[in-house]
Amino acid sequence: MYKLFRNFLFLLPAEASHDLSLFSLSIANKIGLLKFIRSPKKQAVTVMGIEFPNKVGLAAGLDKNGKHIVALSKFGFGFIEIGTVTPKAQAGNPKPRLFRIPKGRAIINRMGFNNHGIDHLIQNVNLAKDAGFNGVLGINIGKNLTTSVEDAVSDYLIGLRQAYFYADYITVNISSPNTPGLRSLQYGEELDQLLAKVKAEQISLSLEFKKYVPIAIKVAPDLTDEEVKNVAETLLGNNIDALIATNTTLDKSVVEGLHHGSEAGGLSGEPVRDMSTRVIAEFHKYLKDQIPIIGVGGIASAADAQAKLNAGAALVQVYSGLIYEGPGLVKRIVKAID
């Protein structure tokens, strides 16, 4: 059934079909159509001190404002990550900014952190919890376009403070290619200073709220082996709780010549699969079991997920694979890695 639905959706512009899919999903949930979906068997695993029902999560980006948490949870995810959210609402980049590449089983986006702001997201989280959602929730935070890279830490601290009480873990996104200068925060002294301030705020908030909310850092797949080593050392030095590897790539050589293959933005889906797995394995050499890795990038099958786990990931997340394979992908992966 999903393939028939996907064929219809693919007739529409990518962003329009994205919005329609989420709207339809929430309507279906409200009228009770999703209650017939059977969740995969629970396979509890503890990572970052959190018990996850299973190892398969939804990556950030699909539900930027946290409006569809309850409906998405029906697919059996072990955890859901919403965002990226910024302190203030922003429109993002001009449309069109989302492109499917079916022949490459890929997606290019240059969304630019379009979202309604952290306050609106928190309202939606409260609505989801009032509606019965009690799953593991990650909130992915970023900086506003109008905030300079030099002042980026101020935006991350705002996001951290606002999200802290409501999240099971918080992801600091410093690797989107669609906010100018953002990826420079992944390197050297800038990364060390950012993480030191984020960590200090986390400790302060843990005392204030009497609970410890882990922090994950999301990195790009375009890092060299030397850069991976440096980032790993900085993560360890600042006692960061987890790493998410990876975001989208700027390397579009694999989709060169395909329709939309030359669009500006970050490439996700099958072309980033092996890049992401390589980066996970390289990080695991240095982090070992001291900092868990959440593997994401090009997962469209159980075998893809297992490769991430074999490379050193403790958990995995899906996004583009969900677009091409449908919600049944979650249950297939959970069943296969049992």
Features:
three-stranded antiparallel β-sheet, alpha/beta, single chain, TIM Barrel, eight-stranded parallel beta barrel, 338 residues
Describe the structure concisely for a colleague.
The chain is α/β, with parallel strands linked by helices. 38% of the residues lie in helices and 17% in strands.
Write up this protein.
The model has no long low-confidence stretch (mean pLDDT 97). Helix 9 links the parallel strand 12 and strand 13. With 338 residues, the chain is an alpha/beta fold. The protein has a single domain, classed as Aldolase class I (TIM Barrel). The longest helix is centred in the middle third of the chain and has 22 residues. The strands form three sheets. Strands 3-4-7-8-9-10-12-13 form an eight-stranded parallel beta barrel, surrounded by four helices. Strands 5-6-11 form a three-stranded antiparallel sheet, with no helix packed on it. Strands 1-2 form a two-stranded antiparallel sheet. It is built from eleven helices and 13 strands. Helix 5 packs parallel to helix 6 and helix 8 packs parallel to helix 9. It is 38% helix and 17% strand.
